[in-house]
Design brief:
The protein is α/β, with parallel strands linked by helices. The chain is built from eleven helices and 13 strands. Strands 2-1-3-4-5 form a five-stranded parallel β-sheet, with helices on both faces. Helix 1 (19-29) links the parallel strand 1 (6-11) and strand 2 (33-38). The longest helix is centred in the last third of the chain and has 13 residues, at 235-247. Bound molecules: flavin mononucleotide (FMN). Flavin mononucleotide binds at residues 12-16, 39, 41-42, 88, 90-93, 122-123, 127.
Length: 277
């Protein structure tokens, strides 16, 4: 699915860094060319050898590494990349990127990249909610970065709140959405039905068909990757609408419409990137 595509994964000094090994592996299985760039602090959490073994590419850490090829590495890589995902992104790297600092391989390469840049913050709840971090994230959004809202749950520090790195499958969806297909359905609204239908015979009896809804989900998923606005009218959708009404959640106006594809891809979860209080 990702043959010929190059993804840069930026890994920073967060306890969640280990999750990216799984993501790198999933991308490689989709025939993607994966380059991992780590901050020096990230190497305290996971060893570069893990990524080198999984990706078959040298994991870059040091901008001034002389034991490699002649190209100015950060520029060469930035030209190859189809998408950059920085996950987990520490408060420190977010602050650096928001202010144009480029004092290591990751920030230098990111600054040089002209492709889509996605950032997935992961940190303690107070660090994440700190106005400085929020301002930095807003700055990055204004500069065209896509920011993945962190998940909520128990953090490594045992606090419970927002700040968790989303599961690798969710991070993969963000990458796929960006590079997996031509965006030839942009601007289209697709209505997909999924699951069984029932037709009343009389007020008591009905005829129906065996359907798991899997085909509808697969079609909707494919359409999402080709950029569309999705509506899936089936039982779960009704449940979602009820949830939306109850919690007064709204589709975020600033969010590009294709994100509503996530409505169903994670099997019934209200996904924070789409719905915001
Ligand atoms: C055990 C441990 C876990 C950490 N987890 C995080 C984290 O999840 N998010 C974060 O922003 N900082 C975290 N930090 C702090 C960063 O590692 C620290 O700010 C570091 O300077 C970040 O460097 P980098 O941004 O260059 O990778 C953690 C530190 C330690 C010791």
């Amino acid at each position: 699915m990702l043959k010929g595509k190059t993804v840069i994964l930026g890994v920073t000094g967060s306890i969640a860094a280990y999750k990216i090994a799984n993501l790198a592996s999933m991308l490689v299985k989709l025939h993607c060319n994966v380059h991992v760039i780590m901050t020096k602090n990230a190497t305290n959490f996971i060893h570069p050898i893990t990524f080198e073994t999984l990706t078959n590419n040298r994991c870059l850490v040091d901008t001034f590494d002389r034991n490699f090829q002649y190209n100015v590495e950060h520029v060469a890589l930035s030209k190859q990349a189809d998408v950059v995902l920085i996950a987990p992104a520490t408060a420190n790297v977010i602050a650096k990127l928001a202010n144009g600092l480029a004092d290591d391989m990751l920030t230098t390469t990111t600054l040089a990249c002209t492709c889509k840049k996605i950032i997935s913050p992961a940190m303690n709840t107070q660090m994440y909610q700190n106005q400085i971090t929020q301002d930095n994230l807003q700055k990055l959004r204004d500069y065209g970065f896509e920011v993945i809202d962190p998940a909520t749950g128990m953090l490594a520090c045992r606090d419970v709140g927002e700040g968790k790195l989303p599961d690798p499958e969710i991070l993969l969806d963000y990458i796929l959405k960006e590079i997996a297909y031509e965006k030839d359905m942009k601007g289209l609204n697709v209505l997909v039905t999924a699951g069984p239908t029932t037709e009343a015979i009389d007020p008591v009896r009905y005829i129906t068909n065996h359907s798991t809804g899997k085909m509808g989900y697969a079609i909707a998923n494919c359409a999402m990757l080709r950029y569309f606005l999705l509506l899936v009218p089936h039982k779960r959708a009704v449940l979602f609408c009820a949830c939306l009404k109850q919690t007064k959640l709204k589709i975020r106006k600033s969010e590009p419409p294709h994100l509503s594809g996530f409505f169903y891809t994670h099997h019934g979860r209200l996904n924070p990137p789409i719905f915001k209080k």
